[in-house]
Amino acid sequence: MLFHTLHYLVFLLLVVTLYWGVHRRGRLWVLGLSSLGFYVLASMAKIEAAVSWQYLPIIVSVAFVAWFGASWLFSPRNGGARQWLRQALVVLLVLSPLLFFKYWNFIAENVEWVLGSWGQVTVLPRVELALPVGISFFTFQAVAYVIDVARSRESLEEDLAPERNAGRFWTFLAFFPQLIAGPIVRRHE
Fold first, then answer.
1. Contact yes or no for 28/167 (Cβ under 8 A)
2. If you average pLDDT over residues 30-39, what whole number do you get?
3. Where residue 89 falls among pLDDT bands split at 50, 70, 90?
4. CB 3.0 to 4.6 Å from 176: which of 35, 74, 144, 156, for a disulfide?
């Protein structure tokens, strides 16, 4: 669903009306569920080929891994010399859907070429799927969040502690007006 379409305008007006129509405590729910519904409604309207309800587990899993991983990295029990390894693991897990959808074919071609130069003929499968809308944005937003939280642990900045509210974090990561065009914002913003 693109910003300049009538569908987006109607969706936005509905969300704004709901947002101001509910009690203050329910507004976060309106924004979070609207961001989730953004994928589903765009898929049903056949507006955007790469937006589909089948891609919902990708954004949800990236959000879960980033939210849980940042809390794990911030924990006082996880200090020490291997903290960089924990950070690398969380960042790699967050990046894995992006690497699969965007770079798998490139990686497969290069692995085949290297193995072929050693005399071993290998054919790896290719990914022929539409790219999920916003995958680069929400992945890099999640990576920036994890790195901000990990760095704040090292400098003991409390205002950059991991978000405790999963719904608030979801809304931060998948906020629908920002999902397609960005910008990527820092944790404290």
1. yes
2. 86
3. very high
4. 35
